[in-house]
Design goal:
Radius of gyration: 31 Å
Strand order of the largest sheet: 2-4-5-7-6
Number of helices: 9
Length: 345
């Protein structure tokens, strides 16, 4: 659950900062300093200062913190911090000492204060607070959102457990029945018995194992193979699909049924009977990641990108589990659709 209307908190912060600035003026220079703040010159100087401050505040909050601070890339965040210090000084210098100097003929800084060394280091002291404000606000928002996501995951898990308890009677009856069929056919029709066994494993996976948040990769791969196997039986060996596994399946663990999202989309929306143009599924297992890529011709009556509920749900789940540390791409070009997902192990 995301924090709504974040902009309001930014507005409250800057109203507070500007208000405290006015109070400081009164404390340092009396009421005359406060009155000066509302003259044209005062509005010019304060306006330029706060414009530069708010600019680097939002650049840090919307760009640098999400890309570097949230991913603990401290070196890049530090470089961004320095870049914002330079930007603040440059922006303030342009507005105060170039733009408004051209309009009014007066400088803000005077004499030797305009020397580069003095001007730059003096402005650093003013630039640091808005950068720190935005960093702290960003971390607070991220913490609150993470707590909300954890609470939502716990709630969803409890709902899943309740649903599982409610439905356990039927699966037990079904599995016992399938086992009875398997036992009766194992000698007379071993091929049919083998298929019943595969079907029992597939249903057991969907009923029990897939309810877990994470699962062993080898179990999900086995489920995918059985899933494809039954489609091959359904199409009576006319299924036009190139399925390829690359890499070694060890004891890797991934989010359950994430790969199946892409497998199901191929079978639900893809053209699977064109021998000249088969659908393609590739799963690549590497040391630190697992990726799946699909490519298929789309049925004329279906538009992948128009049916976005499954995609949005997948993105929300991936964001919750992997915190944007994944790659997800969809592309629809003419009659063809491709997808790619890479997730860390």
């Amino acid at each position: 659950m995301l924090i709504k209307d974040k902009w309001r908190y930014h507005v409250y912060l800057w109203i507070t900062v500007i208000g405290l600035g006015l109070i400081t003026d009164v404390g340092a220079g009396g009421w005359n300093a406060l009155f000066f703040a509302f003259t044209l010159d005062g509005l010019r100087y304060d306006g330029v200062f706060y414009m530069a401050s708010i600019t680097i505040y939002y650049i840090n909050f919307t760009y640098i913190c999400p890309r570097y601070l949230s991913k603990k890339r401290i070196l890049f965040f530090s470089l961004g911090f320095v870049g914002l210090l330079i930007l603040f000084a440059a922006l303030r210098y342009f507005l105060d000492e170039v733009f408004f100097k051209f309009l009014t003929g007066t400088n803000n800084y005077q004499g030797t204060a305009l020397d580069f060394q003095y001007y730059f280091f003096d402005n650093i002291t003013y630039a640091i607070p808005p950068i720190l404000y935005s960093s702290v606000i960003f971390l607070i928002f991220r913490f609150i959102e993470a707590q909300n996501q954890i609470m939502q995951l716990k709630l969803d898990h409890k709902k899943a457990e309740l649903s599982l308890l409610k439905s356990q009677i039927s699966p037990h009856f079904l599995f016992n029945t399938l086992n009875t069929f398997y036992s009766e056919l194992i000698d007379a029709q071993p091929a049919v018995a083998k298929d019943i066994h595969k079907l029992s494993d597939l249903l057991r996976f969907v009923t029990y194992e897939s309810s877990e948040e994470f699962i062993e990769l080898q179990k999900e791969i086995a489920f995918i193979k059985d899933y494809i196997y039954f489609y091959e039986k359904r199409f009576e060996n006319e299924l036009s699909l190139e399925f390829e596994l690359k890499g070694e399946v060890k004891n890797q663990t991934i989010a359950s049924l994430v790969l199946m999202h892409f497998i199901e989309n191929v079978f639900k929306h893809g053209v699977l009977t064109d021998k000249e143009d088969p659908a393609k599924i590739e799963i690549l297992m590497e040391e630190t990641s697992v990726s799946i890529s699909t490519y298929n011709k789309v049925q004329r009556s279906v538009k992948y990108m128009a049916v976005g509920i499954g995609v949005e749900n997948l993105k929300k789940r991936l964001d919750t589990i992997y915190d944007q540390d994944y790659e997800l791409h969809y592309a629809e070009e003419g009659d063809y659709f491709s997808a790619h997902l890479s997730i860390p192990i």
